[in-house]
Each structure stands twice: as C-alpha cells, then as structure tokens.
Amino acid sequence: MRIGELARETGVSVRLLRYYEEQGLLGSERTSGGQRVYGPDAPAVVRRIRALLAAGLPTRVIAEVLDCVCGSEAEIEPCLSPLLVARLDAIDEQIHDLQGTRSCAPPRGRGAGGARGRAPPSPPREPRCPAPPAAEYLRPVL
Fold this sequence. Notes:
Elements: H1 3-10, H2 14-22, E1 29-30, E2 36-37, H3 42-54, H4 59-65, H5 81-104, H6 134-138
Antiparallel strand pairs: 1-2
C-alpha cells in the first residue's frame, strides 16, 4: 500500500504519516524508485497510534508501547501497566495543577469584555467537582 492510499484509508495526512515513520511508529519498505510501501497492517497501526495520541500519550511513549498493543485499537497487553500507570499519574498531576490554576482565575461571565462593569476578582476557590484521578479509571483495565 502506498502512502497516498494509506492516507485516504485512515484519514491521516501524508505529512503526518511521514512524521510517524520518522518517530519510529510506522514502518515502510522502499521501492527501487524510493517510494514508500506499507504493509497490510499499516491502517490498524495508524489507528492505534491515533488512539494512543488521543489518550494523551506522547510519541516517545507510543514508540515504547506500540509493540504491546494487540487486537483492536483499544486493547493493550498487561506488559504496559507500569509505563501507562506512570503516564496516568503524570496526567493526574497535570489535572491537579490545572484545577489549582483555574480556581485562582476570576470566574467567566457576561460583561467581561472590558474593564468597566467588570466585577472584582473572586477569592480563590476549590473546584466544585474535582475530577477523580484518571488512573483510578484505568488501573482495573491494566
């Protein structure tokens, strides 16, 4: 399968497919003319990459765990547990930090378009519904 066909089948741009290849996420062979040719499993690999990116994993982590992904794009082998749990813990920390930042920001509302008529900033507040840690949702699966 050539790169244009893979792009059409997966909905991923040719440029992004080249990037995945540069990052070691996607493999291809070269024809004698230098054109990329992908194997029959390439569409599934691209969908897995997209799913892992959507889950918040950076490409460097995906490169480490992609070989452990099997079945559908959502199934992950248990060998990934420590790596993914560490990543989920980092995401939880980011969520906590963002919630703290948001609680310090003034509330959004109508009339916030200019300095006049704007209410004075509210004191910092705790988030109304703190999100449960993402790792708690995924640990039983891992």
